[in-house]
Design brief:
Layout (H helix, E strand, L loop, with lengths): L3 E7 L3 H15 L4 E5 L3 H7 L5 H9 L2 E6 L4 H11 L4 E7 L12 E7 L9 E3 L5 E3 L5 H16 L9 E6 L7 H16 L2 E6 H10 L6 E4 L1 H15 L8 E3 L4 E3 L18 H13 L3 H17 L12 H11 L1
Parallel strand pairs: 1-2, 1-3, 3-12, 5-10, 8-9, 8-10
Antiparallel strand pairs: 4-5, 4-11, 6-7, 11-12
Helix pairs in contact: 1-9, 1-11, 3-4, 5-6, 7-8, 9-10, 10-11
């Protein structure tokens, strides 16, 4: 039976890079069935809902989802979509590639980000004209679930070459109850599993990563920290146009480039499709086609090294030209 993939372009350059990724998946000829769905700013303007119920249900019921980007409605789209697939971990690899002008070309790090809690759990209140509050949610169950995944990730050799453990990034010296619980639970699971784990205060990590990224391989962190620190890593490898991500649950998953809608270049046909195509590679691997996922990754690496390249990487190629080059190299 062929796998069914929900495809949500979203806003801005999502409408350009997601079709590029689908072209690459079609070139693999794995028999995927693609089901298109809508979400984002334009959908909200037309229907009053940024994420229609039918889109949510498709994401929940198909084998995987490929998503582009949402603009002002991002929180109303991506957070429910992650819920639809039951995602508890966001995987964000940040790697420098040959041929790309990177600040730190030795960078190769994977962020495993808790995906359901923290300050993104949605508990905000405006109590008066002067006061607003935000409740941070951290549970032992979610922290331990992430830690178990991190241990398996390392044990299965899915991290950068030579990885034998992970680093927990936190701010438990200030957020003693919330990050304190997160830190304790993650380190406890690592000890129970016999996996090496060290720890770093997230602000110190933000200083040390740019100075020497080789000291980190796999980084386990909370929701907000993972969002911010992985974007920091993007600056070391050539920009957000190179970073894919996977939102993984126990029985379903959602894949998306880390970049946003890039409204300044949307519709011009010059968006870098690399992050979306690499997200498609992660999707393929998730569905069990490991060799094909590596084929995509190798093809992308060859194109990044030899060209053509889009403007953000110093070239002048269009989205379509880069996509065609990747397919040629498959």
């Amino acid at each position: 039976m062929s796998e069914h993939i929900t495809v949500i372009e979203g806003d801005g350059i999502g409408a350009e890079v997601v079709p590029a990724a689908v072209e690459v998946l079609e070139a693999l000829d794995l028999g995927f069935e693609f089901v298109e769905a809508d979400a984002g700013d334009a959908v909200e303007e037309a229907t009053g809902e940024a994420l229609p119920a039918e889109t949510y249900e498709l994401a929940a019921s198909t084998d995987a989802t490929l998503f582009g980007a949402a603009g002002e409605t991002a929180a109303d789209v991506i957070l429910p979509l992650r819920d639809a697939v039951g995602s508890f971990v966001n995987i964000r690899p940040a790697r420098a590639y040959p041929g790309v002008d990177a600040v730190r070309p030795e960078t190769d790090v994977v962020f495993l980000r808790e995906n359901t809690e923290g300050v993104y759990s949605g508990h905000e209140s405006r109590l008066s004209e002067d006061l607003s509050t935000l409740t941070r949610v951290v549970t032992s169950s979610a922290s331990r679930e992430l830690a178990e995944f991190a241990c398996e990730f390392v044990e299965d050799g899915r991290g950068p070459e030579g990885t034998d453990g992970f680093t927990v990034a936190h701010k438990a010296n200030v957020m003693r109850e919330t990050d304190g619980r997160f830190r304790e639970d993650v380190l406890a699971v690592a000890e129970e599993r016999g996996v090496d784990a060290d720890e770093e205060l997230m602000d110190a990590f933000a200083t040390k990563l740019p100075l020497n990224p080789t000291q980190y391989d796999v980084v386990v962190c909370g929701n907000l920290a993972g969002d911010v620190l992985s974007d920091l890593a993007a600056g070391l490898v050539g920009g957000l146009g190179l970073l894919p991500s996977a939102n993984v649950g126990h029985d379903n998953a959602l894949f998306e480039p880390v970049h946003g809608t890039a409204p300044d270049i949307a519709g011009e046909g010059v968006a870098n499709p690399t992050a979306a195509i690499l997200s498609a590679a992660m999707l393929v691997e998730y569905l069990g086609y490991v060799d094909d996922g590596q084929r995509i990754r190798d093809a992308v690496e060859n194109v990044l090294r030899d060209g053509p390249r889009t403007g953000d990487l110093g070239g002048s190629a269009t989205t379509g030209e880069v996509t065609d080059a990747v397919i040629d190299r498959l």
